[in-house]
Design a protein that fits this description.
Blueprint (H helix, E strand, L loop, with lengths): L2 E2 L9 H4 L6 E10 L5 E9 L3 E8 L4 E8 L5 E8 L4 E8 L3 E8 L4 E7 L6 H14 L1 H5 L3 H4 L52 E6 L13 H15 L8 E5 L3 H8 L8 H5 L6 E7 L2 E3 L6 E3 L9 H4 L1 E2 H9 L5 E7 L5 E2 L2 E2 L20 E5 L17 H10 L17 H20 L6 E3 L5
Parallel strand pairs: 10-11, 10-12, 12-16, 16-19
Antiparallel strand pairs: 1-2, 2-3, 2-9, 3-4, 4-5, 5-6, 6-7, 7-8, 8-9, 13-14, 14-15, 17-18, 19-20
């Protein structure tokens, strides 16, 4: 039976729970491991905040407790579990209201599959269907089972950090900086670009914010690979001298201001590096974005930001755009592997708020800038399941390397145009975000306009 508080009956779904502050919903959980014939039963309780608790006991007398978080309310969620025998693992599930199914990868390399709510257990056939569903949803995670890439706490892998999405919800997690688990080996390491003519006056800024100092802001593991891969593109594909690249890892608010300037003084270090009328500027950012509040302005989230004071500790996207537009450059391109909805592939950044209700007010893009962003204001910038790259960055780089020029979207003339790149990203990022994570993600383009 489903236990509901605040007067909701068994027929009420999790979406309905979001309408009543302080409510929770408890559902039964049952499942089994793919090793040793272990089965388990227990319960899970979800709260209006989007978080929840899990308690199960196995047929071997092992008790496991965990915490989970809805990445997309009523649909996709993830979290972490720890057991009394020392095992721990990361879980991913799909909810259909007050019922659903999922799996957990444990630190002994076993795969546990589970059902929750009023879902009848039809035995092995049911588990086979669940497993097949997640193979289709995320072949890399459930099919190839790249444990070290997705779950570095597996024996033989370095580090023992839980999935970053659980950092906010897990009761056992200390309130300290959440280190970014090492991403999988970079699948783009061998990617080559059409050779570019040297551009000795061009300048690039590349930022990869993976680790956040505040314990309530989850890490962004792909940001390191993303920034490294973009650097190779900037040097090989754009012809920028390595000495003309400003590269920052885990940039703080002060560092962002030092490079880009502030709303009072736009002349940061980047301004000093630009040769008027000759330098082209390329800016790349991978990391968190968030609104300053419900309906607030979008902010880049520095490594030293506070989730409870994004408006004060973030770097306004509007300031970035305004200051870049004031550069005396021949052209400025901004590429953003970030979203500004207040939630991310690692979990929510806006405390005590439903991600569905948080939509940032779009920042106006000045006429002189080219801006390509991972998704719309209310969308999540998804990662590859093995956390090797952000989906957008991976396919952006593959596109500019030549994939976008090939049919059916390209004409094969050896040059990647902006229209070809847009068509290619529409056919890849949007598709894989749906396939892997069941969510919409549409790459956003803002091109220069006539003054």
């Amino acid at each position: 039976m489903v236990g509901a508080r605040c007067g909701l009956g068994p027929a009420a779904g999790l979406a309905a729970m979001a309408l009543l502050a302080g409510c929770s919903l408890t559902v039964p959980v049952s499942g089994s491991s793919d090793t040793a014939g272990e089965v388990f039963t227990g319960s899970a309780t979800g709260y209006i905040t989007g978080n929840g608790d899990l308690d199960v006991t196995s047929s071997r007398g092992v008790t496991c407790t965990g915490a989970f978080h809805y990445v997309e309310r009523g649909r996709l969620g993830n979290g972490a579990v720890r057991c009394s025998d020392g095992r721990e693992g990361d879980l991913v599930f799909r909810s259909t209201g007050q019922a659903g199914y999922g799996y957990a990868l444990m630190s002994d390399a076993s795969l546990a599959q589970f059902l929750f709510g009023n879902v009848p257990d039809a035995g092995p056939a049911a588990w086979s269907q669940v497993y097949a569903h997640f193979r289709a949803l995320s072949a890399r995670m459930a099919g190839e089972r790249t444990y070290c890439g997705s779950f570095p706490h597996t024996p033989g892998c370095s580090g023992r950090d839980l999935h970053p999405a659980s950092a906010m919800a897990a009761k056992t997690r200390p309130a300290a900086a959440v280190p970014a688990a090492a991403p999988a080996p970079d699948p783009l390491a061998g990617l080559t670009y059409p050779p570019a003519m040297p551009r000795p006056d061009d300048v690039a800024v590349i930022i990869g914010n993976a680790d956040y100092r505040s314990g309530d802001i989850p890490a962004v593991p792909p940001a390191r690979n993303d920034a490294a891969a973009v650097r190779r593109y900037v040097v090989e594909g754009l012809g920028v001298r390595p000495g003309n690249i400003i590269q920052m890892s885990d940039a703080t608010a002060a560092q962002l201001a030092e490079v880009f300037g502030t709303d009072r003084d736009p002349r940061g270090r980047l301004y000093d590096w630009v040769k008027p009328g000759r330098s082209r500027v390329f800016v790349y950012y991978a990391g968190h974005g968030a609104p300053s509040g419900p309906g607030g302005s979008p902010m880049l989230v520095p490594a030293d930001a506070s989730a409870t004071a994004i408006a004060l500790s973030g770097y306004p996207l509007a300031t970035l755009y305004a200051n870049l537009s004031r550069l005396p450059a021949a052209g400025v391109t901004v590429v953003l592997e970030a979203c500004f909805s207040g939630t991310s592939a690692a979990g929510t950044l806006v405390p005590n708020a439903s991600p569905v209700a948080i939509v940032a007010k779009p920042a106006r893009v000045p006429a002189r800038l080219t801006v390509i962003a991972a998704g719309a204001a209310d969308q999540i910038a998804s990662w590859e399941p093995d956390r090797s790259h952000g989906l957008f960055t991976e396919y952006f780089l593959k596109g500019v390397a030549g994939a976008a020029d090939r049919p059916p979207g390209g004409n094969g003339d050896g040059t990647v145009t902006m229209d070809e790149l847009r068509r290619y990203l529409d056919g890849t990022v949007a598709y894989y975000a749906r396939r892997y994570w069941g969510r919409d993600q549409t790459v956003s383009f803002s091109l220069p306009r006539e003054m």
